[in-house]
Every structure is written in C-alpha cells, then in structure tokens.
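Quality-control log, excerpt.
Job 1 of 2 completed; input and output follow.
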Amino acid sequence: MNTLFFRLRAYLRHWVTCLDRHSLQAPFIYDLYQSTIVSSKSPPLRHEIESLRNHLLKNTNSFQVTDYGTGRNSKKNAQLTTVSHITRNSSCSPKEGKFLWNLCEYFQARHVLELGTSMGIGSSYMASSSFLPKIYTFEGCPRTAEAAKENFKKLNLSNLQVFEGNIDQTLPSFLSQSPKLDLVYLDANHTYEATLRYFLWLLPHLHKHSVVVFDDIHWSQGMEKAWKKILRDSPHAISIDLFDLGVLFFDPAKKKQHYVLRF
C-alpha cells in the first residue's frame, strides 16, 4: 500500500475515534491529559531549543550519514544529506518535545533512555526537566551523534550521555549494567522487527511506574503492526494512541485500558 495513502487512512481512522479531555472520566487519564498534553507550562529552554532548531533548519552543510534504519543484518547504508534535511525529517516537533518534557516532570523521571538521538532536539527537551534526569541517548550515525553533542554544548546541557554506533550492539551492552528506567522514548529504526526487538530488550528494565513512548506508530504498515502486537502481548496497564506517538504505562494497580486521544 502507498505510504501516503496508508497514513491518510490511519489519520482519518484516528480522527473519527479520538477523544478530547471533556470525554475522559478516569481520574488518572484526565489528570495526565491536563498535565502533559494541554498543559500551558512551558519548558525552561523551549526558546533556546527552538532557536537552535531554526538555525539547524537553515544549515545546508552536507555530510555522510550512516543509516542502520533498514534493520537488515545490521548492515549500514551511507548517504550524503544535509543538516537541514536531518533536522526537518528526524527531529521531534515542538509539540512532541513539550510533551516529552511534561512527561519527565509529571513522573519525576530520573533515568531516561532515548533511541534515535538525531540532532538532539528531543533529548534536549527531556534533559531540561527540573528533575535533571540522566539521559542515555543512542545514535547509530557517528557524524550525527557528534553534531548532537555540539548542540548539547550550545544549550549548556551536561546530563546527557551519547552512545554511538549500531543500536543492535550498543543497547544490549548498556542494558547489561543499566539501572531501572523511568522513561523510554523509541525513535530509531522504524521497522517492525527492530521496534519489537528493542522493546523486548527494554522490558526487563522497566518498573511499575515506567513510561514508554513510541514515535510514528502509524508511520507505516510495519510500525502499526508492531504497535498492535505490543498492545496485544505486552504486560502494560494503560495505553494511549496520540497518532504520531504511542504511550504505555505499566502500573498493575491501574485497570487495563486503551485510549485514542486528540493531541
């Protein structure tokens, strides 16, 4: 199926079924929606981060990118691209960045893991939380990882640790000695197999108050299939579909429920 047609059909299906805050009755979900999705609170570095984004969007310098996104046998594909192109196509939106920051604030996240650093926009939003979480962020392309590190320095953020190289190799090594994770943001290899693989690796390192955010759950048939399988098979309690993002909560004290919400 054509990707654009698939996404349009998925969006129409989401739009027809999604709820807003006025339709929510469960106290936890209503409070979460108010505090993280429609909150008027603004991240302290929002202006600086968005100024940096605008600067990157105007940067037409090119460099070689190592892409593991195909997910086939860990082989890498090299291609020439620009800073502007990467920023436009691989960075979270301002709205998503604010949402990630709000999640860190709401759940007082201390240990945060991100798969897919890109230029470091999402990482920077989360790192600016008042709880100063330790951000472990993974990027396959060494050149992109270096660019992200430079951006973190420009924002005076020091609570980030960047792991360079194929995530299929760097993530298992990290998890073998990692603490329990409070928040996980998956925005790396957008394939069915990789999404499931990473999630299964991360699952033993979550606790009952952990939050897992998946990017682009309706980006392709493979990503939507992975999201549906995770909803069906994982031990989560509450799941939320925001169309561009999918969110899982694991507290067994909460009744298992799925919500499709307006974002």
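Job 2 of 2 completed; input and output follow.
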Amino acid sequence: MEIRYSKAAVKAINAMDKATKDRIRIGIMGLTQKPPVGDIKAMQGSQDDRYRLRIGKYRIIYKYTTENKLEILHILDIGSRGDIYK
C-alpha cells in the first residue's frame, strides 16, 4: 500500500513536536493494516468515502483509492479536533 500526503497534511506534520509526530506516524501505519486499526469513523456528508482517525486531540482525515491494482491511502488533512472539521 502506498501512502500519499496532501500539502496541508505535510504542513501540519512539520509544525508538530517530535512526540506528536511519532503518535501520528504510528496511527497512519495502523491504517495500512487489514482491517485498519484505531478509532475510525466514516465522515458524515462526504461524497468520496472519507474517514477520520482520532489520535488524542488530533484528527486525520483520509480516504482509500486504487490505481492499477495498487491500493493508495490518501492523507487529506491533519489538525486539532476543533479546527479540522471547518
């Protein structure tokens, strides 16, 4: 499985301290397992099957796609609970 990050996700990760980055990285690795591991819920009202992963006060918005039989995990955005859904 390939993992692709949006510009917003990369910017959010780069702004975090090392301990938080490690927790986020472990959470994203859990999404590559079958079935995905973590506190996961489908996003209500999304048209393209987006999900959210909760890691403490942070949320990771992501979705899965397939290209040429290769499954791709798209990390769309990462942010704190109060800001991510706006």
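Post-run check on job 2. The mean pLDDT is 93.
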